[in-house]
Here is the input.
Amino acid sequence: MRDAEHTEERAAKNTGDVLIDDFRICDDPFHRVRRERRVVLSVTPPPPKPAPVHRPAKVAQMLALAHHLQRAIDRGDVADRAAVARRLGLTRARVTQLLDLLLLAPDLQMAVLQLEAIDGAEPMAERTLRAVAHAGTWGEQRVAWSDWACHALRSRRLDG
Here is the structure.
């Protein structure tokens, strides 16, 4: 008898909640919270997701560096590519790879400089950009660029 009175008292205290045979029915929404390896249901909503972090893409930074290095060579601050490599501690082959990005058509260079990495996801690999730069004439580069853009758009649709 005492348990029944205690149950009724608890039911009276919990407004909006109903106790049925020691089971509590709640009107509050529950949210899944992952703590280590277990999942816990919580009444408090999860914190809002942070805004995505935008930064210039690595290929855009590499292209900007290539322009900077070529400008230094043209001004006479550095004798040649080998001197640039010695100063920066890079190999001559790597400096050549960077400066080969300047072979891209001007409109493609502008497009590359506008690329952004969102939450660390790079839109394009430097190797892919070098392949576009080595595609041949500016017209052939534009075709290679559009092929990459179509492929990237298709893969984004499949992922999202």
User: Anything to note?
Assistant: The mean pLDDT is 84.
